[in-house]
Amino acid sequence: MKKIGTLVFFCLMLFMLPSLSHASAGLHLYLNGVSLSPSAEAQMIKSTTMIPIRVVVEELGFQVDWNKKTRTVTIHNDKKTIELVVSQKWATVNGKKVNLDVAPIIKSDTTLVPLRFVGETMGLVVDWENETKSVYLFTSDFGSEVTQPKPPVTQPDPDQGGSTGTGKDEGNNSSNNGNAGNDSKVDLSEIQTMSFEDNRLIIGVSKGDLKPTQQRLTGPNRIVVDIPNSKFSDTFSKTQNFASSGQAEFIVQDHPVVEKIRYSQYSDNPATVRVVIDMKQSQNFSVYTTKDPNTVVVDLNGSSPDPGKDNGTGTLPPHSGKYIVVIDAGHGAKDPGAISLNKRNEKDFNLAQALKVAEVFKNDPDVEVILTRTDDTFLELKERVAFAKQHQANLFVSIHANSINKSSISGTETYYSRDDESKAFAQVMHNNLVKGTELPDRGVRKQSLHVTRETNMPACLLEVGYLTNQTDESALYQEDFQYRVAQSIKDGIKQYLGLKS
What we know:
Elements: H1 2-16, E1 28-31, E2 34-35, E3 43-45, E4 48-52, H2 53-59, E5 63-67, E6 72-76, E7 81-85, E8 90-93, E9 96-99, E10 105-107, E11 110-114, H3 115-122, E12 124-129, E13 134-139, H4 140-145, H5 171-177, E14 189-197, E15 200-205, E16 213-217, E17 222-228, E18 230-232, H6 234-239, E19 247-251, E20 258-268, E21 271-279, E22 286-290, E23 295-299, E24 323-329, H7 346-360, E25 367-371, H8 381-390, E26 395-402, E27 412-416, H9 420-437, E28 441-446, H10 450-453, E29 459-466, H11 470-476, H12 479-496
Parallel strand pairs: 1-13, 14-18, 24-25, 24-26, 26-29, 27-28
Antiparallel strand pairs: 1-2, 3-4, 4-11, 5-6, 6-7, 7-8, 8-9, 10-11, 12-13, 14-15, 15-23, 16-17, 17-21, 19-20, 20-21, 22-23, 27-29
């Protein structure tokens, strides 16, 4: 739903920006709130906002090549290649032709391209500040992670100082004054203080019965904590330097792991404060609440004050300060799963493979593997999900073998359901798994599967091979094959977590 809201916002902004053609020729450009160099000024040309492509894409991690002879700009990274030709109203994105509203032009030795094209192709959110005649670009992870985009209107409201919001529902209004208007009837907890000490982020709150939620993100590494039914107190808001986007932050000086901490009134309805810790590397952590004084604590030391007990968030603290990976052997007991050509049960392969994964992780200094089942036991799908959540798993891997009514089909597949992070995890796991199985690569696929959809950590389901294929079946039940696959699963987990194998 959040992505849909961002898309609607982006589309409305694209329609609004051309109406600003009366703006001065030099429109200043910001990326994720940071001013770009003077050479990065956007310009309004023929009622279309044009921006310098080189500066923007290089800030986003793309490389830019210029072919003077063909007047072609090539923008590329490891996943995307974009080609634009000066004076041509088309471009190609990964070889697919895309029409442009306005052709790229060269002005003062700088190639300018339509903002609409950049936004759609790079996945940027666009904001306009009329008072300063500035264009703000936000990458999708920046916009969705800490602050939601302001609801746009068709024209700037002069009573709001040129803001594109409607005033009452505007994100920066609630963030800067601590009022969450849509939840005014709810008794909200107020964020009163925030400090980082002894490797812990300590958030002082007015009420102690909060149940914060948490998630770990990678690329870059971040810890995201949402505090429900909360807002910033007026006193706290006045002491913080909130940006126009509704976000404030502070740098953690000389810390080996933490770079900075960002926070905002992420949502007014329901009232939710979001805190993001930008990390220099992946780090185990726990989140818990205390009373007298009332606090929400993000503890990078890896455990709560009462190890083994509920820590106030409804989940158990991490085990032994290690990453927790739940390995789920699919099916079991009364549920045999698929049946092989030689009448062998999938559940037996799944369990044997899961046990070998646990074996290769034995005594690992960084990762603790926990199995959903260690024998021929039946578990409901919801029980497997609850198990992973209860143990605060960092990753979830479900092991299966495939079947189809066509014996010629062979190979290894990996599935994910939810988000970009699960997709990235699935891709890393699949690349390693294929090396281990040495079976045909049938790719990574998105599918709505209960255990990968309902878990709240990066999750994937491995279909190691096809029980209905003679070659695959023969391999699946061999111990040397299972050990090789177990090692490939370990390699994938360690690679995703940024750990040495």
